[in-house]
Input
Amino acid sequence: STLFPIKVVHLISHPIQYFVPLYRELARRHEIDLTVMFYSMQSAGAYRDSGFGKTVKWDVPMLDGYQKYISVHAASRAMAGGFDLRPDWDILRATLNSQCDVVWASGYQFLNTWLAAAGQIAGYRLLLRDEQTLLTERAWWKRAIKRLTLPLLFRNIWGLYIGEEN
Output
């Protein structure tokens, strides 16, 4: 039988406005002990978004309503695009030391996700949420790399996906 609360660590790139209501709901539930670990805190306040071409400040308080989030030294860096080969050793160490039951990783483009998968020897289950599909046209070499590497990651994933094509 499962004992409550279930300790969940969410590894995610940065505060994202559409996750805030979910974090608040999960934090409200007695059966879940949620800790969010951000790789970057850049979007928690006003920041320059190159995709939008302007300064953005969300109208949602990005860190309110859930008590446990970690912004360690590594989280002071800027958000990265594409595959991020920079490990966040502080966050990974905190994850391993958290004695969590579940690690919920957002995105396989982060080296931290791959290291968290390898770190399952600590006894946690790994969930992966990603918005990518393998249906998007890509260069042949990217398809080849994904065909070789993603099965190694996916066999360590316990569950969680979004959308039928995902």
About this structure: The mean pLDDT is 82. Helices lie at 20-28, 89-97, 111-118, 140-154. The radius of gyration is 16 Å. The CA atoms of residues 97 and 122 lie 9 Å apart.
